[in-house]
Amino acid sequence: MEETFPELYLENQLCFPLYAASRLTTKLYTPYLDELDLTYPQYIVLMVLWQHQDQSVREIGERLFLESNTLTPLLKRLEQKGLLIRTRSQSDERTVIISLTESGKVLKIKAKDIPHKIAESFQGENITESEVLNFQNTLNKLVGILRERSVHNTNH
After folding, report:
1. Residue-by-residue pLDDT tens, the chain, 156 positions
2. Contacts for 75-79 with beta carbons within 8 Å, 24 or more apart?
3. DSSP 8-class letter at 128
4. Where do runs of H (alpha helix) occur along the chain?
5. With the CA atoms of 99, 112, 44 and 34 taken in that order, what torsion angle do they form, in degrees rounded to the nearest 10?
6. pTM for the complete prediction?
7. Rounded to an integer, what distance in angstroms lies between the CA atom of residue 46 and that of residue 96?
8. Are 46 and 114 in contact (CB under 8 A)?
9. Which of 69, 80, 89, 120 could, after both became Cys, cross-link 95 (CB 3.0–4.6 A)?
């Protein structure tokens, strides 16, 4: 007789609804990002640069939870599109600084309505704006806890 383990059911996991919601939400961005010729990972890299201007590859990776080997191809592709430039730091040549080009800065204006359009896509559903904001706050807390735990675990 096969044992059942309800703790292993998909619907009883925290990770699965987070994963599914992330994938489905990211999918909502596709038509808007297609108009800008961007993928979602390219978009979030640009959001970091739009907010914080010149950043090292390491700083971008830390903000996005991406390793250098994942981030570097994204940056190269954005550079090929003429949206950013990569330069060596004057103070430490091992450090690569990422900066927006004028085209990258202009794209910010074209992208500025995307968050509003995504928020609008939830309207009329069985979830309120306040529920979405509360969920976002809870997710940010969870990310903070997981980030601390990750940093703590890599130091041991």
Report:
1. 688 899 999 999 999 999 999 999 999 999 999 999 999 999 999 999 999 999 999 999 999 999 989 999 999 999 999 999 999 988 888 899 999 999 999 999 999 999 999 988 887 778 888 888 899 999 999 999 998 888 767 665
2. 75/45, 77/42, 78/42, 78/45, 78/46, 78/104
3. -
4. 15-35, 40-52, 57-64, 68-80, 102-111, 114-120, 129-154
5. -110
6. 0.87
7. 16
8. no
9. 89
**Which residue type sits at 140?**
N
In the structure encoding, which two tokens stand for residue 121, read together? 């896509």
CB 49 within 8 A of CB 104: yes
Both tokens of residue 76?
A: 């190269």
User: How far apart, in whole angstroms, are the C-alpha atoms of residue 8 and residue 13?
Assistant: 7
Number of H helices, E strands in the chain: 7, 3
Return the structure tokens found at 146: 């997981």
For 45, the 3-state DSSP assignment is helix
